[in-house]
Amino acid sequence: MLTGKKLIADVDSCQLKPGELALWWLGQLGFIVKMGKTVAYLDAYLTPKSSRLVPPLLKPEQVANAAFICGTHDHGDHIDRSVWPALAAAAPTAKFVVPDLLREMLARELGIPLERFIGLDDGKTMVAAAPASSGQDGGLKISAVAAAHEFLDQDPASGRYPHLGYILEGNGCTLYHSGDCCIYEGLQTKLRRWRFDVVMLPINGRDAQRLSRNCIGNMTYQEAADLAGALQPRLTIPGHYDMFEGNLGDPAAFGDYMQVKYSKLKVHVCGHGRRFVLGRD
User: Could you state, in order of their start, the residue ranges of all structural domains in the chain?
Assistant: First the structure.
């Protein structure tokens, strides 16, 4: 497992051919993703807490290589409010991709200029070049789909959604990061617009006991497997099962279920801070 400066150096030194992507798991649903030379951080949870079972792999001031910092929803293990101002300082040209419903509030409350935020919503897409000063080529196309956590919670006034999943397209690759999400009617139809190389899905599930203590749930591992089965990605990565006692999941059970039900689909269980490169078939 790489941490700190060694992890950043591994990201920076990773060279990819067209049609390849690399990723590093930070725990929970947090990932560093590299497409070409463009680096994005997805739901990076970096705040030290005694309740964490996996300590932060990075200090915020080390994240100088980010072109995009993406947060799927306003929970601390996804939009890590306590470190985002430090991330903004460490990567002064990085853009923050967030649900548009939250964009102005986050800018105001975190003291980050509004122009550094890109707001997305269900069915919306942005195409952004990596900042020239970052030394990264190309950029990313990022699209959003609404996520149900455990409900869609659509804002009645504006029709916008507070919880999103993101589709990243770059360097000839397409990746779906669901954010915290349960299955809802129409989700598969929305996602079938794309042919995914990688999907990242939570598998910790949900139950009454957790919901009673405001621990909002996600897909079960069986539901995540069935979504992967419907989408037929080249690779499925489970997440959101490792961080907090009382909200864990079993990646081995997920892998076993996938092997029995969708044996032709590949699964990768990530190691924390370990580079994984998906090449061309």
Answer: 4-268
